[in-house]
Amino acid sequence: MKSKLIAIAALVALTAGTGTDACTNFIVGKKASVDGSVMISYAADSHNLYGELYRWPAAVWPKGAMLDVKEWDTGKPLGKIAQAERTYSVIGNMNEYQVAITETTFGGRRELVDTTGIMDYGSLIYVALQRSRTAREAIAVMTSLVKEYGYYSGGESFSIADKNEGWIMEMVGKGPGRKGAVWVAIRIPDDCISAHANQARIRQIPFDDKENCMYAPDVVQLARDMGYYNGSDKDFSFAEAYNPWDFGGLRGCEARVWSFFRKYDKGMDRHADFIKGDPTKEPMPLYIKPDRKLSVADVQNNMRDHYEGTDLDMTLDPGAGPWKVPYRWRPMHFKVDGKTYLNERAIATQQSAFVIVPQMRNWLPDEVGGILWFGVDDADMAVFTPLYSSIQAVPECFREGNGDLYNFSWTSAFWIHNWVANMAYSKYSFMIQDIRKVQQELESLSLTIQPTIDEVALRLHKKDPAEARKFLTWYSGHTAEQATARWKQLGEYLLVKYIDGNVKKEENGEFKRNPYGQPASPDFPGYDENYYRNIVNAAGARLEVKE
After folding, report:
1. Model pLDDT for residues 427-437, shown as the tens digit of each residue
2. 172 and 264 share a domain?
């Protein structure tokens, strides 16, 4: 009976850890990046979230003004809070001072959720961005808001960064009747990288390191009061108290961190048994010093990971089908003959609404230094488009209200990318090669011309910062619209090339024709040998051709 209960608990955790709120974040310190940038990343993974770009202009508010708070996930009204006297411009998850905040949900202990709180995790992010000029200030804003108004959500990990520092903060409520939250924030060393993916990752807290660690004064005492911990402060682990490891938290969550870390630390495979679900094995550190520095393109491409190069590679098991599809449709677990099995949960996943890589550069004015690399839908088939954090308008292709989950729009980047992706699922190993060419064409162009755009913006900034913002608004919008138009063109090409399971022949960038000007006979690639073998094993006797 006990083993059955453990199995059920693991299954519940796996479902919670890899469900609709599952996201992945990276953090890159300025000395761990190629050019000195601070970078974070985020995939907003939700089956119910539409991929669009939020914007709040800077404003001055009258005394006594109130702000309506609605839950980010559902739109549910939660209450009102006092508006700040002055708020800053925000584009997506980044503000005009190069402060960026992202998150992953770990849930934690259900009894610590306080449904009477006003501040949910999404509102914390977007309100803090409107009120903060540094990462440290954002931490102070977020923690003071939950202290005053209560915390509505479950356990949450936040990436909080500015042009100089990157932090991870983990927060969980105190439960009904206890307003506020317990939390801890750790600064990631400048020469290190970190990640989190729906599992609390902060263990021991360096209480004496006031420069690089902040925490709620009752972070240990609440755990004692609730019976989660009875040891000394020095041995206390936030993660073990408030979100203890189980099979789901390791296999569905820590595994994604491992897949990122192992690319920059050759010894990371020693944690393979741990991330596959064995909590008795050595856990991974909160951060590592990478064996080489990361570029913007590195961070972007790491967000496209499906465990390639590991024995969890999603393109290699039978679930990938004949076209090596690295996706598994929900639910995340299934039963066969009374046994429960799982589908892997990778960093890149089909249900992403948007994916971002905020890049913060301290050697440039804020109007020029902050870039929100923004894409919609799954990172694997998204295009990261540069949107400077000082822009004053949202491109039409990303505009709020340009389509929604129930209304298709041919001018919406989200719908264009989903159209292409849903075609690719049917012949992934073929189509992804064509998708990569266009994806790399667009992203490489943006990265190549970025120094020139920066230079022009700097010259304008010296004359008038407003002119720099105007130029960068035009450039960001133009680039986004051009990329969306190119992706639509790609979709048309894929439909023509791969219609009905065939593959049209090409020569010199054109589809081939016969000597009489008619379409040449297409290729009929069939399936690979492994897939044919599976068919034979399942139904060979019925399908065998008799000589």
Report:
1. 999 999 999 99
2. yes
